[in-house]
Write a structure and sequence with these properties.
It contains four helices and no strands. The protein has 83 residues and is an all-alpha fold. The chain has two domains: 30 residues; 51 residues, no CATH class. Helix 3 runs antiparallel to helix 4. The longest helix is centred in the N-terminal third of the chain and has 24 residues. It starts with a helix and ends in a 9-residue tail after the last helix.
């Protein structure tokens, strides 16, 4: 009985590791900030907004892209973090 429990726990851990590796390797995976997982959609939108402001302040995106992405956030659309 103990061996069966150990095998079950080991297989669950192995499945979690495989899932995590596949999630990290997938290029189109949505990466939510940690607070967004805890606090929900509003935190995700706020974090995406702060990320966009940072990109704009550091000159990594132009004004048109910034306005387009901020408009999308105002409509509740969260875009992936790409520069």
């Amino acid at each position: 009985m103990t061996a069966m429990v150990a095998v079950l726990i080991g297989s669950l851990i192995l499945a979690a590791v495989v899932y995590d590796i596949a999630r990290l390797v997938t290029p189109s995976e949505s990466r939510c900030p940690p607070l967004a997982r805890i606090r929900g959609r509003r935190a995700a939108l706020e974090s995406a907004e702060m990320w966009l402001v940072g990109l704009r302040l550091h000159g990594r995106i132009d004004a048109t892209t910034y306005r387009t992405r901020m408009h999308g956030l105002a409509l509740g659309e969260r875009t992936p973090r790409r520069t």
